[in-house]
């Protein structure tokens, strides 16, 4: 769903990034449900990832979960 179609669009850039991430995550979680149409789930996930990728590529902020650096050896860019 594009922000034009969303009756309650996020108010901040961070909320928008998180909403795009949450949409993709929900599709991927639901795809594990027995009996789900996996081809449709894959197509939906691909479209959701495209929206998230477009957001980031246009300079949008990263979703909150991606902003954390908890991997050993990772360093925050200054």
Task: Quickly list its features.
78 residues; 0% strand
Fold and architecture overview:
With 78 residues, the chain is mainly α. It has a domain at 14-64. It is 49% helix and 0% strand. The protein has helices at 13-30, 38-57. The termini are far apart. The model has no long low-confidence stretch (mean pLDDT 84).
Topology:
Elements: H1 13-30, H2 38-57
Helix pairs in contact: 1-2
State the gist of this model:
This protein is mainly α. The chain is built from 2 helices and no strands.
Order of helices and strands: HH
Q: Compute the gyration radius: what is it?
A: 14 Å
- Residues in helix, %: 40-55%
Number of helices: 2
As a percent range, the share of strand residues is under 5%
Determine the structural class based on helices, strands and strand pairing. Answer: mainly alpha
